[in-house]
Design a protein that fits this description.
184 residues; alpha+beta; 5-stranded antiparallel beta sheet; 5 helices; 18% helix
């Protein structure tokens, strides 16, 4: 189970506005709140889809939402705020499904690597075996000089757009909110 000390951050959508404007009511990813939900959803996926990662978010109800990889995270979230977002792959181990890969790769929400806590909690709630952390961590930062969003590679905290130093701590959405401690 995931351990948490302190409040949890939520993430607003920070990507292109036209993508958020295209989100339609009721068009979010499939809510996966239980093992039964997951079994029903995975059983409907074509073999070709299972060979690729899926788009996921953890909504503010702490529920996993899944959509095909080509889906935008903001659409998967129904346009809402999330506790985590990225890409996820599944593998069948004996008689059960498990998470084989999971990342926080979402340029629409740019979640911090600390969002793993809520992702792990949502996967645990569904009863899926999972890794102990993101298998691929993406470090996002906003440049304080040019305001562009960056992906930090190889611990090089320099803006690829203007060359300025990037902050050491997550800052993509300066108005991002902190929620109270997660439910036990």
């Amino acid at each position: 189970m995931a351990d948490v000390a302190g409040p949890v951050r939520s993430y607003r959508y920070v990507g292109p506005l036209e993508l958020k404007a295209a989100v339609r009511p009721g068009g979010g990813g499939c809510r996966i709140a239980s093992a039964g939900d997951f079994d029903g959803w995975i059983g409907e996926q074509p073999a070709a889809e299972l060979a690729e990662p899926f788009t996921f978010v953890v909504d503010t109800d702490r529920v996993l939402r899944l959509a095909p990889r080509r889906s935008e995270h903001v659409a998967c979230a129904g346009g809402g705020t999330v506790l985590g977002a990225g890409e996820i792959s599944f593998t069948r181990d004996a008689d059960r499904w498990a998470v084989s890969e999971v990342s926080n790769q979402s340029t629409g929400y740019c979640p911090d690597v600390s969002s793993w806590v809520e992702v792990a909690r949502a996967l645990d709630a569904v009863g899926l075996e999972r890794p102990s952390s993101f298998t691929h961590e993406v470090v996002f930062r906003r440049c304080l000089d040019c305001q562009e969003h960056n992906i930090v590679r190889e611990d090089d905290f320099v803006c690829v757009f203007c060359g300025s130093d990037l902050p050491a701590v997550w800052n993509v959405d300066p108005t991002g909110t902190r929620m109270g401690p997660p439910a036990p």
